[in-house]
Amino acid sequence: MNEIPRARQLRVVACHGCGLVCEDTLDESGNARCPRCGAALRRRRPDSVARAWALLIAALILYIPANALPVMYTRLFGRGGESTIMSGVIEFWRSGSYEIALVIFIASIAVPCAKFLTIGLLLTSARRRSVRAMRERARLYRLIELFGYWSMLDVAVVAIVSALVRFQALSDIEPRIGILFFGVVVILTMLSAMSFDPRLTWDGDDE
Amino acid sequence: MKTFSDLIVCEHCDSVYRRRPLAAGEAAQCGRCAAILYRARRYDVDHWLALTLAAAITFVIANVCPIIRIGFQGMRNDATLWDSASALAQGPITIIAAPFALSIIVLPCAQIGLLAWVLVYARAGRRAPGFAPAMRALAALRPWSMVEVCLLGILVAVVKLSHFLQVAPGAGFWAMAGLMVLITLIANRDVHRLWELTEPRPPLGAEE
Fold this sequence. Notes:
The structure holds 2 protein chains of 2 kinds. Chain A is an alpha+beta fold. Chain A folds into 2 domains: 1-43, no CATH class; 47-205, Up-down Bundle (Butyryl-CoA Dehydrogenase, subunit A, domain 3), CATH 1.20.140. Chain A has helices at residues 26-29, 48-68, 85-94, 98-127, 134-147, 153-164, 177-195, and strands at residues 12-14, 21-23, 72-76, 79-83, 166-167, 171-175. In chain A, the strands form 2 sheets. Chain A has a 4-stranded antiparallel β-sheet with strand order 4-3-6-5. Chain A is elongated and about 70 Å long. Chain B has 2 domains: 1-40, no CATH class; 43-197, Butyryl-CoA Dehydrogenase, subunit A, domain 3, CATH 1.20.140. Chain B is 50% helix and 13% strand. Chain B has helices at residues 45-64, 81-90, 97-123, 131-141, 147-161, 171-186, 193-197; strands spanning 7-9, 16-18, 27-29, 36-39, 68-72, 75-79, 166-169. Chain B is elongated. At the A-B interface, strand 1, strand 2, helix 4, helix 5 and helix 6 of A face strand 1, strand 5, strand 6, helix 2 and helix 3 of B.
């Protein structure tokens, strides 16, 4: 279907560490090392699909407490209250800061959800060795690599405001347990995306 | 084992190509999956090292100077990056300080240090002691270094607090903005070009 040769057809393998193209001797020897950087040569990331699924499911489970539990406690002029990620977004929207509400909504809610769906889709279609929309799936993978880490935004915001607003008697902002769950969710989805081997998307094309 | 320094394999789809010299500003794109294979070099080792030193200086400023100052009924307060990290560490959930401090202070610092180390040797055309682990670390750290996320975080914090406090960005904020640009210039995906730049014998048909 496509005339550009793939590494397996030419019996070469690219080092994951430094990119050097080496002769593929993995069939005979089982384990070979890159002569330039010493990393183990592999055709695909090890246990890519299983690891990506495991990390993704763990992230999904923790995403529930991350949204349900408060991420921040705010006490201003005597009025105190806890807020979750969603209630923070709504508060920004009500106070007229539409841009900020949108930024936080995208970073904390839209991006993580899009990531769950995308990684899930990539994993299922790679397992089925689907040949549909391979270019688009490859592009999706690069998109989540590019934008995935922006979800850390909320963690940074909570850190900065709670460092600043510390006027003991009058006002105080403190982080709450939800932000920990949320931080872990972001880390797990990043690890899941890294475990997924984008080459699998194209492996259905081999036959 | 045979190696082929004139070939490049797309790391997203395993397509194999022969390397070709590129004109300035050009990038080689994979014909199968449209990923960028490699770019024309934008600067040589000297420029690279100079940018790395500039990043080191901005990093120090970003860490020493306050990133935000606030005023509230005659009281003033300011916070540096370290204050933000320690506020998290002293709060009810100590452990959340770790990813924050790592992704905004420790990892950018490690990136700058490792790059300076390999680049100083690369200027002499040599591979620094510990070159391979340093390169592996640079590749592994890149996705976790989040200066730009912190910068946006500061902006959101400014807007959030400006409803009821006087808020002004401090010198550390502008240093963070500079650092964001410099880190993207020096520690991007093209870092592994250093493997080719420090090759004992220049490979045939490499991008130079």
